[in-house]
Amino acid sequence: MAGGPVRKAKRAGGGSQYPIQGMEFLKSKGQHILKNPLIVDSIVQKAGIKSTDVVLEIGPGTGNLTVKLLQVAKKVIAVEVDPRMVFELQRRVQGSSHASHLQVIQGDILKTELPYFDICVANIPYQISSPITFKLLSHRPIFRCAIIMFQREFAMRLVAKPGDSLYCRLSANAQLLSRVDHLLKVGKNNFRPPPKVDSSVVRIEPRNPLPPVNFKEWDGLVRLCFSRKNKTLGAIFRQKNVVALVEKNYKTYQALQGALGSSASTDNGATDLSMMADAGSGRGGGDAEEGGGGQGMDVDMDGGDMDMDDDGDEVTKGPVNKYKEMGLAVLREGSFEDKRSSKLSQDDFLRLLASFNARGIHFAN
């Protein structure tokens, strides 16, 4: 998404490009111009910018939002991939009193090493919402907050609570690392060209300090649980591929413990959250409702015949499999066996992960 000039536009042939004074805005690249100045003002106001703040703006376009940010911030760092937009943005502020307070970085936000900033304000391309979100949350030092325009469905997944229909892996991961609040809905007609979906502005405030948890472990467990979020955890941990994963990870962890000692699992992954970036998209939310819930889970296993549950998933049957029993024992001890991921809170997942770890069962592989 790009914040550009409010000018009359004629529709180009094919409906995919809108020329504005010789510049074509490409919907395929997420270039939709926010044309409502009241929404621009509201975004700036809700950001709570101080006169001493450095603001990071992602996808400034031709600068509608940038100009407003420069009026209240000490400095604005704008990251823009389109060289035409960079030129227009620089031309727009040239000769003004704010020109010296603007730094423009031309490049792909996902490949750019971000400098220090206090607040992030962005109208982003919706197709990269998830990787941008977790790139920001992995940034150090921790910033104060981010005010971001997302596709509405993605935004509602970010803020969804346990029991909500949109609650998913994305919700759990984002809310572990930050406080997320919905600020306002923005209809598609506030943009030129209008996107196919409505949008929402969300405030993301990173937790500081971060919770004391290994984030690779956390994401591994949450990914597994949300592979079938409406099934009971007991049913999930009876599936053939899940039991195989428990066995594989248990053996790997024991081998690491033997080689490295107790330090094998001390890193909490606080600055590497890239594995969470595929936790959801505006369309799918990352529930992975099809499939077994993670990589490396198609390993064949010994010790037990197979049967199918009501959803067609292979489950262990016959001779007792000790790895299945290890997993189920953890669930029973914590009264989780009959619970569903869609209803579990952050504290529930943290307690469940701690219980598995105490039994030597890990999810980082």
UniProtKB/TrEMBL annotation:
Statement: the UniProt record of this protein carries the keyword Protein biosynthesis: no
Keywords per UniProt: Methyltransferase, RNA-binding, rRNA processing, S-adenosyl-L-methionine, Transferase
Feature: compositional bias, Gly residues: 281-296
Residue span, Ribosomal RNA adenine methylase transferase N-terminal domain: 39-208
Compositionally biased spans, kind Polar residues: 261-271
Biological process terms in GO annotation: cell division; cell fate specification
Positions of the UniProt region annotated as Disordered: 261-303
UniProt signal peptide: none
GO cellular component labels: nucleolus
Pfam family of the protein (one): RrnaAD
Binding-site residues, S-adenosyl-L-methionine: 32, 34, 59, 80, 108, 123
A GO term for molecular function: RNA binding
SMART domains assigned: rADc
EC number, as in UniProt: 2.1.1.-
Domain of life: Eukaryota
Tagged with keyword Flavoprotein: no
Family membership: Belongs to the class I-like SAM-binding methyltransferase superfamily. rRNA adenine N(6)-methyltransferase family.
Protein name: rRNA adenine N(6)-methyltransferase
